[in-house]
Amino acid sequence: MEKPTNSTTLARTKSDQLVETLAAAFKSPTQSDQAPGTSDSGGTLSRKSSRRLMMAASPGRSSGGSKNTHIRKSRSAQMKLDLEELSSGAALSRASSASLGLSFSFTGFTVPPDEIADSKPFSDDDIPEDIEAGTHKPKFQTEPTLPIYLKFTDVTYKVIIKGMTTSEERDILSGISGAVNPGEVLALMGPSGSGKTTLLNLLGGRLNQSSVGGSITYNDQPYSKFLKSRIGFVTQDDVLFPHLTVKETLTYAARLRLPKTLTKQQKEKRAIDVIYELGLERCQDTMIGGSFVRGVSGGERKRVCIGNEIIINPSLLFLDEPTSGLDSTTALRTVQTLQDIAEAGKTVITTIHQPSSRLFHKFDKLILLGKGSLLYFGKASEAIVYFSSIGCSPLIAMNPAEFLLDLANGNINDISVPSELEDKVQMENSEAETRNGKPPPAVVHEYLVEAYESRVAENEKKKLMTPLPLDEELKLKVSSSKRQWGASWWQQYCILFCRGIKERRHDYFSWLRITQVLSTAIILGLLWWQSDSKSPKGRQDQAGLLFFIAVFWGFFPVFTAIFTFPQERAMLSKERAADMYRLSAYFLARTTSDLPLDLILPVLFLLVVYFMAGLRVSASPFFLSMLTVFLCIVAAQGLGLAIGATLMDLKRATTLASVTVMTFMLAGGYFVKKVPVFISWIRHISFNYHTYKLLLKVQYQDIMPPVNGITTDSGLKEVGALVAMIFGYRLLAYLSLRRMKLHSGA
């Protein structure tokens, strides 16, 4: 290769020439400080330091300094020198631990594009950018965070399965022990049903602690409410609002979760920073999307979920199968993101189903579960060595994760069987022996559990029993029982109110909904076209129209409001578990944010029907009729909210609402004039009945004789009844939500 003539040109050289060049660069008088991000803020060594030599230098001005252009500090050009052409001539793999990488960060000049293209990546750390990943490599903020050391010893968890006549107690986890420190990524592996998600929920404080055995400590302290603000938890299902954009989703999360000491502008800036850290800037104005709404891709959606949690700079980050449903490149990018987060001094625990070999080597520690029992805990890189030491090793080349999962399932095809296990099967003359002479899965599982307990478990437990050399201040912070809200009650209400309107405006102003209301109004107007209100027969016809209005605007809001809380149950549980807001602020914001949207369509409806049907053309009756309909809508909404929040099941809620609304309609005073005494009380709790009476009083308050025997008084009794229903039904809904929270143990 020709030697470069320009001082800014980097060329591949022999290894000895490369060392001399580096030595000369370090002697430069204009050498800059160490680049940010090369050391870990939590005091732990970066795992990349064991695989590459990190060198950050800024050369002085060269002879062609006038041609140099300054690059933005946040986007320093990074070059990696390929060592494929060293004297050995062979590319050394990462697995052999013999690879050598050099990373330079130049902040003073532009590197020629042809030289950047000439330098090729050589390590698994250099992940190719996928289409959806953006163009910027994530550089996670390393602001100080509270280091949390997580330890758990002999953790057990049982559930009671209730049958028709008997109850059975089943062990989900039995005797799980382990630990993870800041700067490390702990992977929980195991087949489906092995207890990975249950263990993750226990460690994250998401399950009721009353049925948990063993010890789980955070900096040697038990779980406290303070930790909710220091823990990020990414669920397996992407629980997001489909009609909000990526930027709106992260901005609302920042405003609700970041400390009160930050201003609104600082919180919004943090949201933008996270967008760039996760490579989401290209889709920040795109809606999240859902089943019926087009939006971002699966990988971007998963990164938004991760961004929702890392936006608070958590000390602990839990993730439940973050790579499920992603292609291999996007999964690798996601795990690399977790690695970068851990290097910023955070503790990361994730479940993983079946990672590729490249993903497996990125984990620091590993827990292998099988049927709720612990089969291995230790360094991920030493797992194969351990199982080989107990006589289980792959007979063919295979993915380490695949080998471990086969063992956990008891599938030992293509895996060597230890002689003592074969002897045990032969001695017992087991009838469960398979055709090829291999021991059955149950015997393999029992052997693996016994091997771990006899060889490793005791030593690991002794390490866990050793107290951490931490300051008392760190321990006291973790043990604080005081919740830390990111915003005041009023701020929470305002943020949730705005978020609710933005999310649901698409549903309320859909063409289907508008067409439904307007077409009904036009049909009613044509059927009652300019009806006569002067004759008794005409007034009787108009009474039918008024009753239909009372029924329609009692029926319509109920079946809209029923879906409110059951559909948002997953989001409510997730956000309440993270202490994003108070339940009272959410409930009031959720119910009041619907009102402006719910009251627009009734106005259009009445404008069409009122004048087409020839009702009293006067300002007072028109606006009083509109106010009556508004009261009916808000009361009916309250009933729908109460039914939905109480049952939290759409099928049962719809069935109960149908029966209730039909009963209220029949008792509304139009179909049956004389109701038996023992059932007449129903009409007094029927919003249809009170709305119908109010509409008649508004239209015929000065006309005699009264229509349908209803006296034309002031109507304060009916207004009072509707107002009582508005608050009564909503109170019932709030208490039902509070009960649901306690039941879930969130």
TrEMBL record:
Residues 150-396 form the ABC transporter domain. CDD domains: ABCG_EPDR. It is found in: Membrane. InterPro entries: AAA+_ATPase, ABC2_TM, ABC_transporter-like_ATP-bd, ABC_transporter-like_CS, ABCG_dom, ABCG_transporters, P-loop_NTPase. Pfam families: ABC2_membrane (PF01061), ABC2_membrane_7 (PF19055), ABC_tran (PF00005). Residues 25-78 are annotated as: Disordered. GO terms for cellular component: membrane. Keywords: ATP-binding, Membrane, Nucleotide-binding, Transmembrane, Transmembrane helix, Transport. It is a multi-pass membrane protein. Residues 28-47 have a biased composition (Polar residues). The chain crosses the membrane at residues 511-531, 543-566, 587-613, 619-641, 653-672. One of its GO terms (molecular function) is ABC-type transporter activity. PANTHER family: ABC TRANSPORTER G FAMILY MEMBER 22 (PTHR48041:SF94), ABC TRANSPORTER G FAMILY MEMBER 28 (PTHR48041). Belongs to the ABC transporter superfamily. ABCG family. Eye pigment precursor importer (TC 3.A.1.204) subfamily. This is White-brown-complex ABC transporter family isoform 2.
